[in-house]
Amino acid sequence: MKLISMTDFVLGEKVKSILTCIEAYVLIRKYAQFLKQPLELWMFVPCDSDGNVLEYKQNEYLSSLKPYERQEYQQAKERCLFEKSKYGTGTIKEILKCSKIIEDLITCSKLDLTLTQTAIKQLGL
After folding, report:
1. Nearest C-alpha neighbor of 81 from the set 39, 115, 104
2. pLDDT in tens, 27-46
3. How many Å apart are CA 104 and CA 107, to the nearest integer?
């Protein structure tokens, strides 16, 4: 699922197909809360608990890590809300300087962000 505006979400097929008003309201509210989250680097790239990027890009390097390091990386990767993007960490940091919340990313026409399974689960979709 791509990151879309609140209007597009409300008018989308997923909300239209909900059977009750209460279910639709809950889904719409979750998406609104999702869009209002403050942006952080960990949403885009795996980071440790201090916010440092964990850049393990090569499979052979990842396999050479100790089990707890590999587990830390996997957990950090699973926390990300957006699929690995074509934008480097530097570009993402620049985006974070001018964007405060997830909703701000929608107006950036150059961004084409896809939600991870973690984000989709958080939304209840």
Report:
1. 115
2. 889 999 999 999 999 999 88
3. 6
